[in-house]
Amino acid sequence: MAYNEAIKKAYQEELASLRAAGLYKEERYIHTPQAAEIEVEFPAGTSPRKVINFCSNNYLGLSSHPEVIKAAHEALDRWGFGMSSVRFICGTQDIHRELERRVSEFLGTEDTILFSSCMDANAGVFEAILGEQDVMIADRLVHASIIDGMRLCKAQQDSYKHANMEHLEEKLQEHQDKRIRMIITDGVFSMDGDTARLDEIVRLAEKYDAMVFIDDSHATGYLGPTGRGTHELYGVMGKIDIITTTFGKALGGASGGCVSGRKEIVELCRQKARPYLFSNTLSPVIVATTIKVIELLSQTADRREKLLENTAYWKKGLQEAGFILKESDTAIVPIMLYNAKLAQDFSRDLFEEGIYAIGFFFPVVPKGQARIRTQISAAHEREHLDRGLEAFIKVGKKYNILGKTKEEIIEMYGL
């Protein structure tokens, strides 16, 4: 059937219903490099205004770091812009293998394979290594890209209640007849900012002869004593079978991702993972700059330490003001508002105060769990944090939510 007026009208009505329900997501246009302070055009067509950015994954402030920019220019001159091919045809340069080696050393794994994004890594890995006789047991709050990857795999799917080790153990006992039992979790859960209890997960995996998979995208580069991620934070380096992660957050903020882990698993991905086999190779510019970022991280812990200090200061200020925060042990700090419209209105008012922080609501988070998710960066200075706190408190007073309980906020605004 051709694209006709009836189909067009149906799509228009669906978009209108999203707007009416307060679920329509509006994009903002940034006119400057990514940084603690950026110029944003919002609404579309208006003059851009300078705001403090509290919603970027730029945890270590490296997206516009001078040495990273310099490395990108040098890589462009030496290796060119793009590869125009996939890896197994004519898309592998020496620096691609060099980055894979560096990532393996950094994460403490046996081998690594690059993908164009962590979403592609998650889309490719399960189908490549699991079959109908296997089972995937995932935390119920895993990232959408993990869910999509699991759907592409013929293995049986099951889940356990978020961070509930007793329920996970029940599931492992239930599936003892499967060839492979794979426990699947995020290292850091991006909407809440909490971390997976990897020490307990590994203990159960060893007890019930299961494999462990983690997506560590929101941890790689800054969590753990030397920034290796949640597996370092929980003292289980070398005991995680598969790690997927991104270079698009703390590691420079561009794009690209990988599967890192047991060498046989990596090799199977090289032979069978469809996003790897049928997508263009990661740009050499991104590869070279990611190598530079890993070098920078090995030279000093200053940025990681500043990020931790900034995060502690930000949480303390919000808690003392009377906001309800999710329990988070990372640089992700969600402020709970529960109502989708309130989250959007709150975000819009913050923007008017010079603060860029986005409201999250269904379907990104469950219904009744709307929030403003703030993300702290090493690029933030104390003055940025103080101005942010001042704005949050001002808007919080406007909506009369400071010091209120969850039940009181829901009574005022509903779910």
Helix content: 40-55%
Structural class: alpha/beta
Cα-to-Cα separation, first versus last residue: 40 Å
Largest sheet: 7 strands, mixed
Q: Outline the low-pLDDT stretches.
A: none
Global morphology? globular
Using only C-alpha atoms, the radius of gyration works out to 22 Å
DSSP summary, beta strand count: 14
Strand content: 15-25%
- The overall pLDDT average reads 95
The CATH architecture of the largest domain would be 3-Layer(aba) Sandwich
Estimate nothing, just give the exact number of structural domains. Answer: 2
CATH level 1 name of the largest domain:
Alpha Beta
Q: According to CATH, what is the topology of the largest domain?
A: Aspartate Aminotransferase, domain 2
List the total number of helices: 16
The helix/strand series, from N terminus to C terminus, equals HEEEHHHEHEHEHEHEHEEHHHHEHEEEHH
CATH superfamily of the largest domain: Type I PLP-dependent aspartate aminotransferase-like (Major domain)
Strand order of the largest sheet: 4-10-9-8-7-5-6
Describe this structure in a few short sentences.
The chain is α/β, with parallel strands linked by helices and 415 residues long. The chain is 43% helix and 16% strand.
